[in-house]
Write a structure and sequence with these properties.
By secondary structure, the chain is of the alpha/beta class. It folds into 2 domains: 7-249 and 451-470, Aldehyde Dehydrogenase, Chain A, domain 1 (3-Layer(aba) Sandwich), CATH 3.40.605.10; 254-440, 3-Layer(aba) Sandwich (Aldehyde Dehydrogenase, Chain A, domain 2). The chain contains 16 helices and 22 strands. It has a 7-stranded mixed sheet with strand order 14-15-16-13-12-18-19, with helices on both faces. The model has no long low-confidence stretch (mean pLDDT 97).
Length: 476
């Protein structure tokens, strides 16, 4: 690993400005550094992005696709380097870091493919007499300069979900990675610099919050795409002015286990969904509603699975859970669990801090909607388990939330499948898998406080392009 990583300013690597130490959350040691961009830097990249806007929009489809495929192939060549950087900056175990790298490769590959599929349409306009002898062509054109703000928990693949569709659609983009986890994004910059994209098409700049606010309020940006907490995201939307806004926000995702569920087959998925990556995922399985007939089987298996997870240095092979991102979040979830216990919740496993910033996988029951561990987004290795007898009631209890991102349903009853699909107030219903499931080409996003719009390269490109109609009078 390098001792210093430069920031990527309109195609140039620069190493000046305020230093930004990057800390390994597992041992609290600074392992590298980069720099915080200034407002002057942001102004430079805005101007440069606008200057190359037409050149990027007019870049042939094959050239954009080739650039994206080059990035995907180069990540593959440097796969282990990316995985170790992810582990160092997030403390996610190598097992999960390697999986994220694989997903980023797929996301850029999808971008290369979708760049070739920006379809238009031909329309007859003679449905009304005034439209006789007229026809129309509808095409998509790049929306313009994109501002992107990425979170700490998937600092490679969620960055890829901003960059790949922007490049594919022909939009210049300025990206702010999370200040705690900027390194994997800056490694991506090295690969982007190798392509034939115009300089200024992509800028990757760590920033403090005040400087980053320029991405929200500056009217020269035509779209803001943000992934992060609901309070921050909705606040950004209120200040974003006339630009388009796409928000991928939080959740307290649910899971329903029905009488027909095969727990022998699926229990490992439920354990991973509850505790993987220390629960620091917006679709982390947080609330489980299990039919009374399956309650004991689920709880015993869940406790056993939690106890078997190996804690330790995330760079050590075989470690399956490690530290949270910082002390503040470990302290927050510890306070939430203690508060729930004081109000009557029962701890079946865990419920305590581990050295440094770790928190034990925790299973709670006897909880209520009013407890923070149920009503808010835990973003931690904590799951609450309650039973139900009536399937529609379980659906209603999932819906009794300010969030609506994804929900998993374990069932082999097609009537329950369709009832869940038609009645769950979420962006995605996952059958016979946990709420954490995401294929990177599917539309991903939520309703209610969970966000606005959808990601997945094709669906992000829809927001990054505008339809324009050409009407032709054939009698002219």
């Amino acid at each position: 690993m390098q001792s210093t990583y430069p920031i990527f300013l309109a195609g140039e690597f620069v190493t000046f400005g305020q230093e930004l130490p990057v800390v390994n959350p597992y041992n609290n040691e600074t392992w590298t550094k980069t720099y915080l961009a200034s407002k002057e830097h942001v102004e430079q990249v805005i101007q440069k992005g606008l200057a190359v806007q037409r050149a990027l929009a007019e870049l042939p489809t094959h050239a954009r696709a080739e650039a994206l495929l080059h990035i995907a192939n180069r990540i593959k060549e440097r796969q282990e380097e990316f995985a170790r950087a992810l582990t160092m900056e997030t403390a996610k175990p190598l097992f999960y870091a390697r999986a994220e790298v694989e997903r980023a490769i797929q996301t850029f590959t999808d971008g290369a493919e979708e760049a070739k599929r920006i379809y238009g349409e031909w329309m007859a306009l003679d449905r009304h007499p005034s439209g006789e002898r007229h026809e129309a062509i509808v095409r998509r054109f790049p929306v313009g300069l994109v501002a992107a703000i990425a979170p700490f928990n998937f600092p490679l693949n969620l960055v890829a979900h901003k960059l790949a569709p922007a490049i594919a659609a022909g939009c210049p983009i300025v990206l702010k990675p999370a200040s705690k986890t900027p390194i994997s994004a800056l490694l991506l910059a090295e690969l982007i610099a190798e392509t034939k994209l115009p300089k200024g098409a992509v800028s990757i700049l760590p920033m403090d919050r005040e400087t980053g606010d320029m991405l929200v309020t500056d009217e020269r940006f035509k779209l803001l795409t943000f992934t992060g907490s609901p309070s921050v995201g909705w606040g950004m939307k209120a200040r974003a002015g006339k630009k388009k806004v796409v928000l991928e926000l939080g959740g307290n995702a649910g899971l329903i286990v029905t009488p027909s569920a095969n727990l022998d087959k699926h229990l490992k998925k439920i354990v991973a969904g509850s505790f993987g990556q220390s629960g620091q995922s917006c679709i982390h399985t947080q609330r489980i509603f299990v039919h009374q007939s399956k309650r004991d089987e689920l709880l015993s298996g869940l406790v056993k699975g939690a106890a078997e997870l190996k804690y330790g240095d995330p760079l050590e092979e075989g470690v399956m859970f490690s530290s949270m991102i910082d002390y503040a979040n470990a302290e927050r979830i510890d306070a939430w669990v203690k508060e729930a216990v004081a109000d009557g919740a029962k701890v079946l496993y865990g419920g305590q801090r581990i050295a440094n910033t770790g928190y034990l996988p925790t299973i709670l029951t006897n909880t209520t909607r009013e407890m923070k561990v149920c009503g808010k987004e835990a973003f931690a290795p904590v799951v609450v388990v309650e039973d139900y007898t009536d399937f529609p009631d379980a659906i209603q209890r999932i819906n009794d939330s300010d969030f609506g991102l994804q929900c998993g349903v374990f069932t082999n009853d097609m009537r329950e499948v369709m009832y869940a699909y038609e009645n769950l107030e979420v962006g995605g219903v996952i059958i016979n898998n946990v709420s954490n499931f995401r294929a990177d080409n599917m539309p991903y996003g939520g309703v209610k406080d969970s966000g606005l719009g959808r990601e997945g390269v094709r669906y992000a490109m829809e927001d990054m392009t505008e339809r324009r109609v050409l009407v032709i009078n054939k009698d002219a």
